[in-house]
Amino acid sequence: MIFNYFFQKIKDRTDAAGGSDGGADKTVGAVLTSAADNERLLKELFAGSSDFVTRGFTFKGVNGESERAVLAFMDGMTSAEILNDSIIKPLMYGVRDTPDTGSGACGGEPGNRSSIEAVNDILLSVGEIKVTSDISDAVEGILNGDCVMFIDGCGECTVMNCKGFEKRGVEQPAYDVSMRGPRESFNENLRTNTSLLRRRIKNRDLVFESTTVGRKTNTNVCIVYVNGLADAELVAEVKRRISYINVDLILESGYIEEYIEDSPFSVFATMGITERPDVLAGKLLEGRVGIMVDGSPFVLTAPYLFAEAFQNPEDYYSRTIYSSLVRIFRYIAFLLSILVPGLYVALTSFHQELIPSSLLFNMAAASEGVPFTSFAEIAIFLFVFEMLKEAGVHMPKNIGQTTSIVGGLVLGDAAVQAGIISAPAVIIISFTAVSSFMVPAINNEITLLRWIFLFLGGVLGGYGISVGIIGLTLHITGMQSFGYSFFAPFFPERVEDIKDTFVRVPLWMMRRRPTGMAHADRVRENTPIPPNDK
Predict the structure, then answer these.
(1) What is the pLDDT of residues 184-236, one digit of tens each?
(2) 218-232 burial by CB neighbour count: b if 16+ within 10 A, else e?
(3) Over 50: is that where the pLDDT of 408 sits?
(4) Same domain? 346 vs 208
(5) Which domain holds residue 401?
(6) Longest dimension (CA), the chain
């Protein structure tokens, strides 16, 4: 809490000093009337970039006169097929007859169209076109993979969508894995991600608002929400926090999360992440806001509640009885995975009288000859387990699985046989490891809490464990996520919203959206209750 207080003071002072200067470092200026001068200016701006390409050519304009034009684009970012077939070929061999086009390249009598408008309307066969007189818009378009066309004698340019860079296809989720449900996940392309979401929410109220963050990287960030469901104050707060980010680079959504999250020094994250379009669609329809970052397959969601960590997409695709049972197991697994190592150390070191005599004698026999205390052997083997887990995650897939399995079996058995660690300690660590994997959304938080409770149990015994539980409860109940209580609906208590926490009641019983998120339209289900089976 103290760390959070000082961090918030520093953050407020930073925002007041220069937060409004955030955003991309853009080149300001107007498009020149000479195509050659514009080409020269862009070559100066992209000096030393071998992938920047310009293509000058002459075409016969719609007024019958020869026109000089220059195309500017980034090699590898644009589609050669679109450039050749939809831009260059129509310009050089397209239709040239049209009335009322005006005289000259960009001039014309009142009421007549300019030459660039006529070219766009008649000769170009590109789906998305933008006319601008600002050179910064042209530079931004080139960096995003668009092609920019300058026509001699015109103070405007045409930015044409012809993106064609390589991207990863839509694959199965690697983070939010489930046996039943859609098998699509987001990838690193922002427009692909928006289309995946649009396929699931075919509603005109689904809004995508784009902005650019990062002075050097100019990363595209998209704020997504359902207009009429998301609270206007929540949307405004998300926009405000993102607008204050004044940094050189944004490479992944984790950068955005760290700059705008609440309680940055807390063990728990106050923003959710997902790589599944169906999960994001469900959260948006509850009134939440999503943040998509170009180059990242993980989408941020706000606000994020503690109960969401125990919810799995498969819970809503399976029948309610099984889903509720598994969800209860997740809560139990969370408590066991953070408390069992500390409780084991506290019992064996301070409270042996609480252990049944027969079990105590067996544990003492198994620990005979071990040179370490129970706290030391649990800490050592827990450290070894964390090393094996990290090695298995970051090594190549096939080698990582082999390392985890062989390393765990060989090291555990060898350590017991050598008398370095006792068999009960190996059982405790293995049990807590399996338990933590039942709640993958907060696996990192579980790891930190496990070490904290292990230290409290090793130093203060049962009293330390009790203090830790009380402190953890106070910490969680005092946290907020974008103005919403992190521990809702347990604190403050909202009985109606508990239907989707410890258990998952039938979908036809969850008639209203979570309290406080969707103010205008809280009713999400009006299906009549199914009749009882006879």
Answers:
(1) 999 999 999 999 999 999 999 999 999 999 999 999 999 999 999 999 999 99
(2) bbbbbbbbbeebbbe
(3) yes
(4) no
(5) 320-485
(6) 103
Do 342 and 285 sit in the same domain of this protein? no
The whole-angstrom distance between residue 158's C-alpha and the CA centroid of its chain comes to: 33
C-alpha closest to that of 139 among 255, 271, 26: 26
Answer yes or no: do 444 and 354 share one domain: yes
Burial class (CB in 10 A: 0-12, 13-18, 19+), 333: buried
User: Sign of dihedral through CA atoms 448, 436, 275, 290?
Assistant: negative
SS3 227: coil
Q: What is the spatial distance between Cα 331 and Cα 67, in angstroms, rounded to a whole number? A: 71
Please say whether the beta carbons of 309 and 272 come within 8 A: no
Q: Is 468 in the same domain as 333?
A: yes
250-281 pLDDT tens trace: 999 999 999 999 999 999 999 999 999 999 99
Whether 273 maps to a domain, the answer reads yes
Residue 329 and residue 471 in one domain: yes
Q: Is 517 helix (H, G, I), strand (E, B) or coil?
A: coil
* 524 domain residue, yes or no: no
Return the structure tokens found at 80: 């050669």
On the question of pLDDT at 307 being above 90, the answer is yes
The pTM of this model reads 0.85
Instruction: Tell which residue, 316, 322, 328, has the closest CA to residue 510.
Output: 316
Tell me the pLDDT tens digit for each residue of 315-325: 999 999 999 99
Write the single-letter amino acid at 48: G
Q: What is the pLDDT of residues 445-500, one digit of tens each?
A: 999 999 999 999 999 999 999 999 999 999 999 999 999 999 999 988 888 889 99
Which stretches of 408-501 are assigned E, i.e. beta strand? Answer: 480-481, 484-485
Burial (CB count within 10 angstroms: exposed 0-12, middle 13-18, buried 19+), residue 51: exposed
d(CA 62, CA 154) in angstroms, rounded, equals 14
Spatial contact of 317 and 181, defined as CB atoms under 8 Å apart: yes
Report the alpha-carbon distance of residue 301 to residue 146 in Å, rounded: 30
